[in-house]
Amino acid sequence: MQPIVLASTSPYRKALLARLHLPFEVCAPDVDEAALPGESPRTTARRLAQAKAEAVAARVPAAIVIGSDQVADLDGAPLNKPGSHDAALAQLLQLQGRTATFHTALAVARDGGAHVEVDCVPTRVRF
């Protein structure tokens, strides 16, 4: 069985993968997570999930590597991580009574990144 590597240091993603009861390792992808100018939130999530999987696959070519990213979207504009309590409160007030979309992308790479599958699932949340 090929080793599985999670290209993320997120405790939440690690806990999700652990639910499958499969052995896996964790490796930080070291990828710049900034959105590109004019890039949609969905495209950002897909690109970053793929970049994370490919970055780690290049370092662990014998493994199956899983990369993921999520970008929140309000009316087509990305919602960045608030970074502070006050910013989080302001963001929640901005979202009150509105619907945001969370674009969750998953990429699976193998053969050192020569083969990569990427998908993105939107989840709409009304606040």
What can be said about this structure in brief?
This protein has 127 residues and is of the alpha/beta class. Helix content is 30%, strand content 34%.
Which key terms come to mind for this protein?
34% strand; alpha/beta; 127 residues; 6 strands
Ends distance: 43 Å
SS field, number of helical segments: 3
How much helix, percentage-wise, in residues? 25-40%
Largest sheet: 6 strands, mixed
* Uncertain stretches of 5 or more adjacent residues: none
The count of strands amounts to: 6
Share of β-strand residues:
25-35%
Shape: elongated
Q: How do the helices and strands follow one another from N- to C-terminus?
A: EHEHEEHEE
What Rg do the Cα atoms give?
A: 16 Å
Question: Whole-number average pLDDT?
Answer: 96
The computed structural class is alpha/beta
Written description of the protein model:
The structure is a single chain. This protein is of the alpha/beta class. The protein has helices spanning 11-18, 41-59, 85-95; strands spanning 4-6, 25-26, 64-74, 77-79, 99-110, 115-126. Strands 1, 2, 3, 4, 5 and 6 form a six-stranded mixed sheet that branches. Strand 1 (4-6), helix 1 (11-18) and strand 2 form a beta-alpha-beta unit. The radius of gyration is 16 Å and the shape is elongated. The N and C termini lie far apart (43 Å). The mean pLDDT is 96.
Write the layout of secondary structure elements.
Layout: E1 4-6, H1 11-18, E2 25-26, H2 41-59, E3 64-74, E4 77-79, H3 85-95, E5 99-110, E6 115-126
Parallel strand pairs: 1-2, 1-3
Antiparallel strand pairs: 3-4, 3-5, 5-6
